[in-house]
Specification:
343 residues, alpha+beta, 28% helix, 26% strand
């Protein structure tokens, strides 16, 4: 969950208070005796993933004028201002993504944003809470067993001054990451970029894709030299290198058939591999790697000894989003790898 902070680390920030268009506490009202009450979100509907669980929502009788004033709007952030536990201090946030009529109770505060993507603002606050527990705890005070958030201190939290483009890119990827828990299988990657918005391109048309050195085997490995990839991965060295660039090495036969590795610098790949890299300015090699790195992406033939024909590899297709979105996806995916966010 630290990837947000790592991506935007060091960027200048603007206090939350400067982005507030409207903010108000919730309402609790009175008992709904006639069954015509309004749905009210409580902190018990919060989850620690920043999402709402609306399986058990109470209804309360609340004055019409207050309902009109305090109706939650889509993409508002709901802040826990009273509550908290020993493990989870007060200050959790959830994103409201509903179209129906809801209010929230008096233990919460609605934050409605302006001049920033409201979902980006939510993610900024969500990740701040996850990665700065000490700071969050310092904003709370305890009375009668309940932690109360100091709103003045909270509204000084900084939101990174990311460009509109970077905000949109992060939100697009983060939303799909939430849906898939960022597990990198083929179907979930394509879910992120599916639809008519992004064209599908064949690897054979947009990459230089061919066999590794079919005349070289592990018998040629030496003690010192340049990194070499076999069908088992980067497992040896050669006294020469064939490439000095970024590329992807694909295991084309055997137990690891379909597995890929990202190569850079000076390297070679030997028999039973396929190597490829982008020949198109608007296709990032690292994005190409993440788009193709799962075994299930590759059409394998054979039984006990699976293999991938070069022609089949060239016919594989991937989506081609704008280069800015590719690069933002790569930033997040690389940080996800570092933080073991992949399972």
């Amino acid at each position: 969950m630290s990837q947000f902070i790592e991506i935007f680390y060091g960027m200048e920030t603007t206090p939350v208070k400067d982005y507030i268009d409207d903010s108000f506490p919730g309402e609790w009202g009175t008992e709904d005796k006639d069954g015509n009450g309004v749905k009210v979100i409580r902190t018990t509907n919060f989850t620690n993933s920043g999402k709402l669980n609306l399986a058990d929502v109470v209804t309360r009788s609340i004055e019409d004028r207050k309902v009109v004033r305090k109706q939650i709007k889509k993409y508002d952030t709901i802040l826990e201002r009273s509550g908290g536990t020993a493990d989870n201090p007060v200050g959790r946030v959830v994103l409201f993504e509903e179209d129906n009529l809801f209010l929230c109770n008096n233990f919460t505060q609605v934050l409605r944003f302006k001049d920033v993507d409201p979902r980006f603002a939510f993610y900024a606050l969500y990740y701040f809470y996850q990665t700065n527990r000490t700071a969050i705890r310092s904003m709370g005070s305890k009375t009668t067993g309940i932690q109360n958030l100091n709103m003045s201190k909270y509204l000084e939290i900084g939101i990174p001054n990311a460009s509109d483009e970077d905000q949109k890119a992060f939100v697009t990827i983060a939303e799909q990451a939430d849906k898939s828990e960022f597990v990198g299988c083929k179907s979930q990657f394509f879910e992120m970029f599916e639809g008519d918005e992004y064209p599908l391109i064949k690897l054979g048309d947009y990459t230089d894709l061919t066999w590794g050195d079919t005349n070289t085997t592990k018998n040629s490995y030496v003690t010192e030299g340049y990194l070499a990839y076999s069908a088992s991965g980067p497992d040896g060295k050669l006294d020469h290198y064939d490439y000095d660039c970024e590329g992807i090495v694909l295991s084309a036969i055997g137990a690891d058939c379909g597995k890929t590795w990202f190569a850079s610098g000076k390297w070679s790949c030997i028999k039973n591999t396929i190597r490829f890299w982008s020949t198109f300015d608007d296709l990032d090699n690292r994005f190409l790697y993440f788009a193709t790195r799962e075994k299930d992406f590759w059409p394998r033939r054979g039984g006990a000894q699976p293999f991938i024909p070069q022609g089949d590899a060239r016919n594989c297709s991937i989506p081609l989003p704008p280069i800015c979105l590719q690069r933002k996806f790569v930033e997040i995916a690389e940080q996800a790898d570092k933080s073991e966010y992949y399972n």
